[in-house]
């Protein structure tokens, strides 16, 4: 079984044992990566949320052969662009240089898109302006898009349609929409990434079930988006053969345990089990389909 986690926020300090600026336990990234390997993960895409984070993602990927980076600016971070020396043009030129100098490790433009649930971080006009610039990056580099779409009132789909000729392929990650919203994304020729947040409610499960397996990808979005006991998908895990390692509070950390409320890549096996169950497939068959979908789009992964 070969799995690729397309959304892992491994640059987050919690994966180094630091929570809200406080070192709660030793750096355990090595143990996290080993648990991922044991769960069947053969590659991960480390998300670049802004210019600096994209740099950190690439630095991390240089240290691990099976890690690959995305480069872009998350919609909730776009307000920082105006404060960059030289403004937006210089900011996006720096992103493009980062990509061109690291083509062996950068596999996608993003995370980019729109997020109207968190306009207190970045207003709508700023998000719209800088989302469009990512299409230009995709056109210049030929790379696919790693996309974010939250409560965008039709603006996301409109911009995707208007700029569809500028990019080859893309995936809308962490999908939490309806059956109709899934169809709209599929009609645009996009893939859809699923994690624990995609599987919270019965409506979520119905939407995910409606997506053909050959248009799905799998992710954790760690350290966020684990499947919780309150989620509709949790009951499906009752008959899963693969079980998570023990979890402990960060204050009681041991290197063989997960940290409570800190999602990590190995939990992808839970998402796989739910996806396979929803589509009436064996886990190995679903894993093979997801792997083929992912390497078909993100061709730099090998």
Quick rundown:
The chain is an alpha/beta fold and 302 residues long. It has helices at residues 29-38, 51-63, 87-100, 124-141, 155-162, 179-187, 202-210, 268-278, 283-297; strands at residues 3-8, 18-19, 22-23, 41-46, 67-71, 106-115, 145-150, 170-172, 191-194, 216-218, 247-248, 258-259.
Q: Point out poorly predicted stretches.
A: none
Using the CA coordinates, give the radius of gyration. 18 Å
- Major beta-sheet overview: 8 strands, parallel
Question: What is the ordering of alpha helices and beta strands?
Answer: EEEHEHEHEHEHEHEHEEEHH
Portion in strands: 15-25%
CATH topology of the largest domain: TIM Barrel
Helix content: 25-40%
Explain this structure.
- The chain is an alpha/beta fold.
- It has two domains: 25-39 and 169-302, Metal-dependent hydrolases (TIM Barrel); 41-148, TIM Barrel, CATH 3.20.20.
- The chain is 35% helix and 17% strand.
- It has helices at 29-38, 51-63, 87-100, 124-141, 155-162, 179-187, 202-210, 268-278, 283-297, and strands at 3-8, 18-19, 22-23, 41-46, 67-71, 106-115, 145-150, 170-172, 191-194, 216-218, 247-248, 258-259.
- The protein has an eight-stranded parallel β-sheet.
- Strand 4 (41-46), helix 2 (51-63) and strand 5 (67-71) form a beta-alpha-beta unit.
- It starts with a strand and ends in a 5-residue tail after the last helix.
- The model has no long low-confidence stretch (mean pLDDT 97).
Note the topology:
Elements: E1 3-8, E2 18-19, E3 22-23, H1 29-38, E4 41-46, H2 51-63, E5 67-71, H3 87-100, E6 106-115, H4 124-141, E7 145-150, H5 155-162, E8 170-172, H6 179-187, E9 191-194, H7 202-210, E10 216-218, E11 247-248, E12 258-259, H8 268-278, H9 283-297
Helix pairs in contact: 3-4, 6-7, 8-9
